[in-house]
Design a protein that fits this description.
The complex is a heterodimer. Chain A is mostly helical. Chain A has helices spanning 13-35, 37-40, 51-63, 66-76, 83-107, 116-119, 126-153, 167-205, 223-249, 256-283, 287-290, 295-315, 317-321, 323-347, 362-385; strands spanning 2-4, 389-391. The radius of gyration of chain A is 22 Å and the shape is globular. By secondary structure, chain B is an alpha/beta fold. Chain B contains nine helices and ten strands. In chain B, the strands form four sheets. Chain B has a four-stranded mixed sheet, covered by helices on one side. In chain B, strands 3-4 form a two-stranded antiparallel ribbon. Chain B has a two-stranded antiparallel ribbon with strand order 5-6. The chains are: A mainly alpha, B alpha/beta. Chains A and B meet through helix 1, helix 2, helix 4, helix 5 and helix 7 of A and helix 3, helix 4, strand 7, helix 8 and helix 9 of B. The structure holds iron/sulfur cluster (SF4) (3 copies).
Chain lengths: 394, 318
């Protein structure tokens, strides 16, 4: 089996639905750029960060973690049987980070100054570190993806008409690029893993400075560690999730052997995260807040409950054998981590002066959903035209 | 208005001396001192708000708006007491606001509290700002730089007093708005607008150390009038604006904060992860070695070339 372009029509009923959602999101987005953040979002001086930072950026980065965990597994630890999942995971990470960068661009008030952190540095700022790491990592991801592009075109360069004279030189250039890349790729792969561990954890440092404004159930000095561990734990489930969806929608045979192995590897990773998360709760004795069973407590408990449930499911042998069960467990973990990021950035933020409670506006939700829809469409386009998914030639 | 010593009269040589000592300690080995930690002047500003002396005339609000080019209206309109019905926060149109609170000792004389940026000694907003658009100046003031700010609003997340506000209705050139201690007026040798206009002795401006002494004296002289707490002396590592009052500060809607500086933990974590890039580089080396070793183990004994580092195009499965 080799990664090959999927033979499939781009258009389907689902694609049309996604396109409608994307257009709807873009419509709200145009209002944001015309009349300012206040016109589209429910943000105010008490709640400066909302859905776009909590979900699009923070959860987006976490859910793109499959890129670095699979790279570490397949390349650093050389589990070569997992190479089949590296490319789809790489593609998800690349698109995921592009989506995150886009979200940052629409959320910052002076979007035209997005390049400022490149030359104006503040080493004390956790946000600066996140910003720089994400920018470099995104570049690394694009470089890692380049071989897939060269593979697609080498020997197939075919310009029409008069341009045909360029066919040979371009092909030679691509070959040169390909050779250069495969010699140096290990540098980028390791850099990708290092950059990921750095900014996944710094994303947790972000809210530490909010101090007492953050609910004690979440505010802890080990936040960076919790963010890193949960990102590592959600990496493989994310690959399982998208791989099963892709094989369903393209009618391919799911790679069950690889996927169920990923499932069992998730058990210790998730276990470590849960141990730290619960340990932190017991050491700081914050369970008294969880025992209040109010809205905030329930948000906290559901975040842990989802992950515990998935953990128990994955412990049973039956789960890893059945695509449906494996899919459920993976979805639970994804939902749990997503809720965790939402909670950290939105539920937990309880400032002293809080006159209006924040809830995301229709505009914010539309933009988020629209961006996700666009992401899925681009993913579909790429796997149809580029050799990403491994499958038998039909 | 009382005024102990104007900042602009600070002995320049003193400033230079402090700066020289700071520079020396930087070069002399203490490598952990970051360049951003400019030494604060010993003569830095302090302002005391005596809430028992404030009459709630709100002239400071008018003067502040006028000084910052914000729509201010007639000074007379500020005697309208109905604004006190609702608790107000500083915002884009008013960098300082005065609120009314009940006075249990004498219901006829309510307590008024002016609020604005505290100009923290260790400001969370400065530590947080992604591009360093906020600066803690030697004179103690914290100012915002229009040319740098990208509008990420992380400063608003970080500030424990919820002071910076954002112009939500603007798509182009939204500003972060907060008290700048009238830096423009002071560079022209004038006092901050609110200090200058205050008709009572509610605002005391001077050297922080002098102001603090004055506050302690006031409390000592009238222990029945004041509670024994100077809000801002130690809160989040100390602030430029400080308050004394006849009742507990949480009853005046001042957040109960500890003495630990807000950026302390965050910066410690940040520098721990990054400590001169040693941890990231070590991790890189470690992973590189691991990659090479696992590859070597795999290939040893097989007919693949030894020691060749892998690439993404490797397609080993059958
Ligand atoms: S009160 Fe807030 S905005 Fe003002 S200096 Fe302190 S942290 Fe910065
Ligand atoms: S909004 Fe502006 S001043 Fe505030 S942290 Fe962001 S860049 Fe700095
Ligand atoms: S001008 Fe002085 S007395 Fe009047 S409200 Fe302001 S601080 Fe109080």
């Amino acid at each position: 089996m080799k990664p090959l372009p999927v033979k499939k029509n781009f258009f389907s009923l689902g694609v049309i639905v996604l396109a409608v959602l994307a257009v709807n999101g873009l419509a709200f987005l145009s209002i944001r750029f015309y009349s300012g953040l206040g016109a589209v979002t429910n943000l105010d001086n008490q709640t400066p960060w909302g859905l776009w930072i909590g979900v699009d950026v923070a959860a987006g980065v976490a859910l793109a973690a499959g890129g670095f965990t699979s790279a570490a597994l397949a390349h650093v630890f050389h589990r070569e049987s997992y190479h089949a999942i590296v490319r789809p995971a790489l593609l998800t990470a690349m698109l995921g980070y592009t989506f995150v960068a886009f979200a940052v661009c629409i959320d910052i008030g002076r979007f035209y100054y997005i390049w400022h952190p490149l030359i104006m540095w503040n080493g004390n700022s956790a946000l600066f570190e996140v910003g720089i790491c994400v920018m470099i990592y995104m570049t690394v991801l694009y470089i890692e993806f380049l071989p897939i592009v060269t593979e697609r075109f080498i020997g197939k360069v075919n310009f029409p008409g008069a341009l045909a004279a360029f066919n040979k030189p371009v092909d030679a250039l691509l070959k040169l690029l390909d050779r250069g890349l495969s010699k140096t790729m290990f540098v980028f792969i390791i850099a990708g893993v290092v950059l990921s561990t750095l900014h996944q954890s710094s994303l947790g440092t972000l809210m530490v400075i909010a101090g007492q404004k953050m609910h004690p159930l979440w505010q802890t000095p080990v936040l960076p560690l919790l963010f890193l561990l949960s990102a590592i734990a959600v990496g493989f489930p994310m690959i399982i999730f998208e791989s099963l969806i892709a094989s369903k929608s393209f009618r391919l045979k799911p790679e069950m052997k690889i996927l169920s192995n990923l499932g069992s590897m998730t058990v210790p990773l998730l276990g470590i995260y849960l141990a730290f998360k619960l340990g932190d709760m017991f050491i700081r004795e914050t369970f008294i807040y969880a025992a209040k069973f109010d809205y905030t407590a329930w948000m906290f408990l559901s975040e842990i409950g989802l992950l515990l449930l998935a953990f128990l499911m994955l412990l049973s042998r039956k789960t890893s054998g059945s695509p449906a069960m494996l899919f459920t467990a993976a979805s639970l973990i994804i939902a749990g981590v997503l809720l965790n990021r939402f909670n950290n950035f939105i539920t937990a933020y309880k400032p002293f002066y809080d006159t209006v409670t924040y809830y995301p506006s229709i505009g914010e939700i539309s933009v988020t959903i629209g961006c996700i829809a666009l992401l899925v469409l681009i993913y579909r386009f790429i796997v149809i035209y580029f050799p990403v998914i491994s499958h038998e030639k039909k | 208005m009382i005024y102990i010593e104007h900042m602009n009269n600070i002995d320049r040589r003193n400033f230079l001396k402090t700066a020289a000592i700071g520079a020396a300690s930087l070069t002399l080995g203490s490598a952990t001192v970051k360049a951003a930690d400019k030494p604060l002047s010993d003569d830095r500003i302090g302002i005391l708000v005596d809430t028992t002396a404030c009459v709630g005339c709100r002239h400071c609000e008018w003067a502040c708006r006028t000084a910052h080019g914000l729509p201010a209206g007639e000074l007379e309109s500020y005697s309208d007491n109905s604004v006190f019905k609702e608790y107000r926060r500083p915002g884009n149109e008013a960098l300082t606001v005065v609120n009314e609170f009940e006075n249990e000792k004498n219901p006829l004389l309510p307590v008024f509290v002016k609020s604005q940026c505290m100009h923290c000694e260790k400001p969370a907003c400065v530590s947080a700002c992604i591009v360093g658009a906020l600066t803690k100046n030697e004179d103690g003031s914290v100012t915002w730089n229009d040319d740098k700010c990208i509008g990420c609003r992380y400063c608003m997340v970080a500030c424990q007093f919820q002071i910076p506000t954002y112009e939500w209705q603007k798509s182009i050139d939204p500003h972060i708005m907060k008290c700048d201690l009238c830096s423009e007026r002071r560079s022209n040798g004038k006092l901050p607008a609110c200090i200058e206009i205050c008709p009572n002795e509610a605002l005391l401006f001077g050297k922080r150390s002098d102001v603090l002494k004055a506050a302690k004296n006031k409390i000592k002289r009238k222990p029945d009038t004041y509670i024994n707490h100077i809000y801002g002396e130690h809160e989040v590592g100390g602030t430029t604006w400080m308050y004394i009052a006849g009742k507990k500060f949480d009853k005046l809607k001042m957040p109960p904060l500890g003495t630990a500086t807000a950026p302390g933990i965050s910066e410690a974590i940040q520098h721990g992860i990054f400590a001169y890039f040693v941890p990231p580089v070590t991790l890189f080396a470690l992973l590189g070695t691991m990659m090479w070793v696992t590859k070597w183990k795999k290939t040893n004994g097989s007919d693949e070339p030894k020691g060749k580092l892998p690439d993404v195009n490797d397609e080993k499965e059958k």
